[in-house]
Design goal:
heterodimer; A: MetI-like fold; 8 helices; flat; B: alpha/beta; Rossmann fold; four-stranded antiparallel sheet; globular
């Protein structure tokens, strides 16, 4: 039986790096797709709106675990074998895109419509209105909920352990199985999650307060 | 050729017809005030002129542009037609100077020191030279509205529309905005304004138009219209003092 010593702890710490990387990749790709979806949801084109809202509705209505299973096991039936990291980051990116799209759509919609009227009356094109008037204001509004979602994403990366990808949770399980010290091991794992998420939660809370207090210049 | 030509315009919101065949023309350099009760359709009419509201039938021509809901044509029209709103609608994330310079840069391709000089010039025109770098939140309502007027002027419009621009202001702040508008009128700007300021309409507008129930009920040279209102509705409106 292995002991719970430095090598095991180092293994867990290194796996926390994978959790962070997974979060980063999922958030970046999910962010790009989510931004496109948010704009599509608000587009004058009915077709674009329908595509985006269907995608969001479907993804938000199924567990991210199913997306993960489909991309990992499902695609292998068609001879497409995705390595675990790829399947994991793709699934989490899909999940993140749907939620970020809704957060950002809400933020864009909460910019007063008079801002649209004033800018269109000044002969700005729709892309110019987004770029110079609407998005700068929407981004400020969206910061607290976006950071809040990032916290959820960090914690939800743990589900990819089921396809055998060794991130923080999976590393904890492996060490726990080898040492028979689940309480100590998972306490460390929990502490690491906390160390990552707590500052983010505080940041989200702080941003919310700053936004409510008025506009900082 | 009038600067603004409105011919038999009809507009409904759902089942409610707010404009029931309105015709009006404004000559170049003329100031026309539209007065009337809330719900008489005066703001809707003004917003139709620059295409913020689409009318169902009728024809509108402004500054040589025939109003068309095609976005590209609408933008061409709006380069020549400024509008100032009741709630100022400055861009809160931009300074006064940036608010003013944005549209000339994006829509007209101006830039460099020339753009800056022009922005300072219009800001001076509304008496706010020292506020170039101030954010809207740090300006009073009257100052914000003057910046909004400057922002419109920066596009060098041929026609200016004013939609109850002093209604959200305290009486003391109303004055400073009206002074700016009066200066503009004297400088020969073509202006179409919806207002509750009867004194301003009487003293500054060449023509005053009284709207009632979606129609132009009575109109004429301001002096005559206020001195001798013909219709009982306008008489009641003017004597009620509730505007």
């Amino acid at each position: 039986m292995a002991t719970f010593g430095w090598p095991e702890m180092l293994f867990i710490f290194r796996s926390a790096g994978w959790t962070l990387l997974l979060t980063l990749v999922a958030f970046s790709i999910g962010g790009v797709v989510g931004a496109a979806l948010a704009i599509m949801r608000l587009s004058p084109s009915r077709v674009l709106r329908a595509i985006a809202s269907t995608y969001i509705l479907v993804i938000q209505s199924i567990p991210v675990l199913m997306v993960l299973f489909m991309s990992y096991y499902g695609l292998s039936l068609f001879g497409i074998g995705l390595p675990p990291f790829l399947a994991a980051s793709a699934s989490l990116a899909i999940y993140a895109s749907a939620y970020l799209a809704e957060i950002w759509r809400g933020s864009i919609e909460s910019v007063p419509f008079q801002q649209w009227e004033a800018s269109s009356s000044l002969a700005l094109t729709r892309p110019q209105q987004y770029r110079y008037i609407i998005l700068p204001q929407a981004v400020r509004i969206s910061l607290p909920p976006t950071v809040g979602f990032l916290v959820q994403l960090v914690k939800n990366t743990s589900i990819v352990s089921v396809v055998g990808f060794v991130e923080l949770s999976r590393a904890g399980t492996l060490v726990s199985n080898a040492t028979f010290l689940p309480f100590q091991v998972f306490s460390l794992v929990a502490a690491i999650y906390f160390t990552i998420c707590f500052p983010l939660s505080r940041l989200s809370r702080h941003l919310e307060k700053v936004m409510n207090a008025g506009r900082p210049h | 050729m009038p600067a603004v030509l409105i011919e038999n315009v009809h507009k409904s919101f759902g089942a409610v017809e707010v404009l029931k065949g309105v015709s009006l023309s404004v000559e170049s350099g003329q100031v026309v005030a539209i007065i009337g009760r809330s719900g008489s359709g005066k703001s809707t009419l003004l917003r139709c002129v620059n295409g913020l509201e689409a009318c169902q039938s009728g024809r509108i021509e402004v500054a040589g542009h025939v109003l068309d809901q095609d976005q590209k044509k609408l933008r061409e029209l709006r380069k020549d037609v400024g509008i100032v709103f009741q709630s100022y609608n400055l861009f809160p994330h931009l300074t006064a100077g940036e608010n003013i310079m944005l549209a000339p840069r994006l829509a007209k391709g101006l830039g460099g020191p020339e753009l800056r000089r022009m922005a300072e010039e219009v800001l001076a025109k509304v008496g706010l030279s020292e506020k170039f770098d101030a954010y809207p939140d740090n300006l009073s309502g009257g100052q914000q509205q003057r910046v909004a007027i400057a922002r419109s002027l920066a596009m060098q419009p041929k026609v200016m529309l004013f939609d109850e621009v002093t209604s959200a202001l305290d009486p003391e702040l109303t004055g400073e905005v009206l002074v700016v508008m009066e200066d503009l009128a004297k400088a020969g700007m073509t202006m179409l304004l919806v207002t509750h300021e009867m004194n301003f309409a009487r003293n500054v507008a060449d023509v005053t138009v009284f709207m009632h129930q979606g129609r132009i009920w009575e109109s004429g040279p301001s002096a005559d219209l206020f001195a001798a209102p013909k219709t009982p509705e306008l008489q009641a409106f003017l004597s009620a003092g509730v505007h």
